Q: What sequence folds into this?
């Protein structure tokens, strides 16, 4: 019994020492968390310093206004002094359009900027200023005042300068007072503003009405394109709570090629050559990726390898593809309007395209039941077809395709769907937008058939992520995975005898 009593006496001492150890661990954890928080705060301060320096050095970026404390951050704020200037500019622009340039043309419609019209507008403005009928406010230069009025007459108002700037890749309008741009993969608030919600909706209508589409409270979700081919999406009241929203995805005026992507570090020369072999040898390809990952750019580059003597049909919601071949038919969906209530969907276009004697079909994006029709087309003599899908990696792409096929309304067993996918698609090319804003091809993956009820994927090339550099750039390398494609003999029949060395595992680990 003595030894049991001794153990009972020792137990409080053990509990005390254990408590001290726990307290020590908790103290160490708290210190580690404090260091992490301090590092995060320092990184945030450095980020803000860079943004402030960028705003100071860039004449395109305006200073942000000091907002009242009760301002909703999503809505933003326009000071009355700036609002008065914008109101005067709009009044002058509307008066010149209605009374001098185009009396019979609605202000919601675009007006072509010709030298004759521009001269008339400038002469009218000069007469108004010289005659004392208007006074240019002291808060704005005369040149900027005139340029803003011309942008309202002929262009897209406050967005015109942003649209004309080639280095801007995306413009996002979150209500009238918050306009955000993307440059070199980084987002920053521009400081440009509209006068009010009606001003935003006027610009939306100026984009969509020439295309035969409506933009109002009954048609408040709009997909369209700008005259230069840029992708355009708008959401109007009452769906948006903080004012009308616009998203403009700009495309380079100079069409990029595969070699440009190699120069940017988006892929290697071996990957580019392999992609060329895939397209020329009529492999069915799905370009997979998230929003803003470069899917459309990549599919445009791949389409450059389609031979001139092959007939291609492209199908899109809003035309964005830029094929250079001559034997191309471009189809675009049609939304219903009061004048023409019939709707033409992507699925309708795919079914009709099969009767147009195409050798290849390119769908801008599969997002619904048309996926089943696309897979059937790939499997019935339209080899070499291409499409894009939203997904994060090749395996997720297969799951996404399964879901989209089931959205067709056909009661198909899942194993039949998987067999259809495995029998139709040859390769998945994964495009990714990395955490530093750079865009890379992260996988080229072969669809190697079925094993049981699982679609087998064979990674040919991939991007090996090695972390970040001290200045925040993603560090990593592209390399082959060591797997040779099963379709190697098909490439050879089209003149692409790919060397074995191309597929040797070239990645030696970080820093090598």
A:
């Amino acid at each position: 019994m003595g030894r049991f009593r001794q153990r009972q006496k020792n137990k409080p001492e053990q509990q005390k020492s254990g408590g001290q150890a726990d307290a020590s661990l908790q103290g160490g954890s708290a210190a580690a968390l404090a260091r992490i928080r301090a590092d995060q705060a320092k990184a945030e301060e450095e980020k803000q310093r860079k943004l402030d320096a960028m705003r100071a050095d860039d004449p395109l970026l305006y200073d942000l206004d000091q907002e009242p404390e009760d301002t909703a951050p999503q809505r933003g704020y326009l000071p009355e002094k700036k609002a008065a200037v914008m109101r005067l500019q709009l009044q002058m622009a509307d008066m010149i359009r209605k009374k001098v340039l185009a009396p019979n043309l609605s202000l919601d419609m675009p007006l072509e900027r010709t030298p004759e019209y521009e001269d008339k507008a400038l002469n009218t403005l000069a007469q108004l200023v010289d005659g004392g009928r208007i006074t240019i406010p002291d808060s704005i230069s005369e040149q900027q005042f005139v340029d803003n009025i011309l942008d309202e007459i002929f262009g897209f108002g406050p967005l015109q300068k942003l649209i004309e700037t080639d280095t801007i890749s995306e413009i996002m309008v979150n209500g009238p007072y918050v306009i955000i741009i993307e440059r070199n993969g980084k987002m920053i608030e521009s400081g440009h503003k509209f006068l009010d919600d009606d001003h935003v909706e006027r610009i939306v209508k100026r984009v969509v009405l020439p295309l035969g589409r409506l933009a109002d409270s009954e048609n408040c979700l709009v997909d369209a394109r700008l005259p230069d081919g840029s992708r355009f999406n708008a959401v109007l009241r009452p769906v948006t709570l903080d004012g009308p929203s616009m998203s403009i995805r700009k495309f380079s005026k100079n069409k990029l090629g595969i070699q440009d992507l190699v120069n940017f570090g988006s892929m290697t020369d071996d990957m580019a050559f392999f992609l060329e072999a895939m397209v020329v040898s009529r492999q069915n390809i799905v370009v997979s990726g998230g929003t803003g990952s470069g899917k459309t750019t990549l599919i445009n580059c791949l389409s450059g390898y389609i031979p001139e003597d092959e007939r291609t049909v492209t199908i899109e919601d809003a035309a964005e593809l830029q094929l250079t071949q001559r034997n191309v038919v471009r189809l675009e969906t049609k939304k219903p309007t009061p004048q023409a209530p019939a709707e033409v969907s992507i699925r309708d276009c795919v079914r009709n395209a099969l009767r147009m004697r195409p050798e290849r079909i390119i769908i801008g994006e599969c997002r619904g039941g048309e996926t089943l029709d696309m897979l059937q087309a790939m499997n019935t003599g339209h080899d070499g077809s291409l499409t894009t899908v939203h997904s994060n990696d090749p395996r997720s792409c297969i799951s996404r395709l399964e879901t989209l096929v089931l959205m067709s309304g056909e009661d198909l067993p899942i194993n039949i769907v998987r067999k259809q996918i495995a029998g139709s698609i040859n390769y998945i090319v994964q495009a990714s937008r990395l955490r530093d804003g750079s865009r890379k091809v992260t996988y080229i993956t072969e669809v190697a058939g079925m094993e049981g009820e699982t679609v087998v994927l064979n990674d040919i090339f991939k991007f090996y992520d090695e972390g970040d550099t001290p200045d925040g750039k993603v560090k990593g390398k592209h390399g082959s995975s060591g797997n040779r494609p099963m379709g190697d003999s098909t490439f050879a029949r089209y003149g692409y005898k790919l060397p074995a060395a191309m597929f040797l595992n070239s990645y030696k680990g970080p820093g090598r």
Summary: The chain is about 40% helix and 20% strand. Residues 452 and 459 are 19 Å apart (CA to CA). Residues 258-503 form a domain with the Rossmann fold fold (CATH 3.40.50.300). The chain has two domains: 80-249, 258-503.
